[in-house]
Amino acid sequence: MxxxxxxxxxxxxxxxxxxxxxxxxxxxxxxxxxxxxIRADNYSKESQSxxxxxxxxxxxDRFFLEELRKLISGKRxxxxxxxxxxxxxxxxxxxxLEDFCQIDRLNAIDYSRKMVAQAQGILEHSNVSWGxxxxxxxxxxxxxxxxxxxxxxxxxxxxIQQAFxxxxxxxxxxxxxxxxxxxSDQKFLKHYRYNEVNSNHGKYVAYFTKIEGSPLTNGKDQxxxxxxxxxxxxxxxxxxxxxxxRPLADKEIYPVERGLDEMxxxxxxxxxANKFICLLR
Length: 281
Known about the structure:
By secondary structure, this protein is α/β, with parallel strands linked by helices. The protein has ten helices and twelve strands.
């Protein structure tokens, strides 16, 4: 691991132990697959045990489905979920989609191979594969793509636009992307002592996680630091615009009174027709 990153992760561990979360400009994607591999067997149980996560996913799914009902009711679609985790949310979401449209093709990918193995048991083996959001193996094949759980926020700054471009390239012209990210919320930042003076600041929130009450650690018995980029609405819309996507609807999903700390920002985006032709003119 890069010495600079290793030093930063040690600093973040100290701050997280004290404040519960920390802030940084370094995205820790080096141990991302390791962390999610370890969590795979307990992922849904862990999420469902947290009222904040249930609240977040319920409201996000409801928003997406309400907007999609207006856009694709009665249509036959090909659907891709990027960052499907263990596949259970993908299964619930696709079942609800089929209340108003027909899914002719369902594909799902995840960066964790153990999550993929779990999802293959839920969504059928042939529908799920290992994948990297910055190198998706699809070209203009899907009418609908979802990228939920704030997946894109795990990436380093230099890879985020590339990820948006790849999500866009998987869509047919006029296709729909549903995506949610962690919002840059001032109340959250203030509560967790975001402070320019003592260097506890940056675009990424850093945190620990537990499995059944036990801290998640790497092979060196160090607690794994997860990082998630926080976006303002303006930033996320610029990334989308650069990828040939335009907003149709958006929603800020606020915390429950107790539990959830972060504000989620969800968007429904549409791929512009003939994007590359327009850019050349």
